[in-house]
Amino acid sequence: MAGYTPIYGFPYPEATDLVADYPALGQDLAEDIEAVLPTLGGLSSATPTSIANSGGLASLSGNTVTFTGVSSVSLNGCFTGDMDNYRVMTNYVTSTTAVMNLRFRASAADNTAAVYQIRGGDQGGFTSAAVSDQTSAAVATSYAGGNTAVIDVCNPYSAQYTLCPFITMGGTVAVVALSRFGALAHLSTSSFDGLSLYMASGNMTGTVSVYGFKK
Amino acid sequence: MADVIETDYTTDPPTVTSRDYTPEEAAQLAADAQAAADALAAAEALEAEQAAARQAAIDHAKSLGFTDAMIAVMYPNLTMEA
Questions:
Q1: pTM score
Q2: B14 CA to chain A: closest CA distance, Å?
């Protein structure tokens, strides 16, 4: 007779169980884990249904898009009604020092409404930390040495403002680590299922992953 | 060579299509490029203006008899002459 764990009730063999019963117990355990995993809260993968890129190459594996030499990379279908909030993480290098911009997407098309707002600050780099009514969001000054961006995207899919606390940083040996941090808002109630990252000039190589905050 | 490569991962194997920019995308790209050029020019103009102001401040301080060391202590954020 199998024993059961106290919290999730996963079965396990007890000393008196016949070895011949182990395969069935193992199957029960595997099926229980498979049923429980999707219900657990915390970060979970948010996988795009399709991607697009201009220039270079891009491919998807799991929730991560790997791109090489692209001027833009777009993710579609990664924001859904299943979760409210998401984290976008990207690590990349650029061919030249330039701004990386973000646009939200719906139905595989960028939203270029002039309602992107940024408030925040910079350490080095650009001095215009606060900008309003833009057609995109300049989230990072990017360098050939290396860059990372962590962007929390809140309520992209629901009919609310899409609000994003973010921090990005990058640098080279010459300019060390520069950062941009703050708040990005898309002041519309449009629903978005994806986003685009694109360079103001040059191209970029790296990865971008999307995770959802599961309740 | 096509401008945009799209890969649909809802099919097995994934469906890859390529296309040129739509007129709207091409217009937006041109607008983005112009905006980026304008922003760069504005940043360079601001930097030049600030550099001139820093140099004028240093020159004025020196005309009053302050040395580089004194200026560095009084105004640590003021860039010194090379």
A1: 0.81
A2: 9
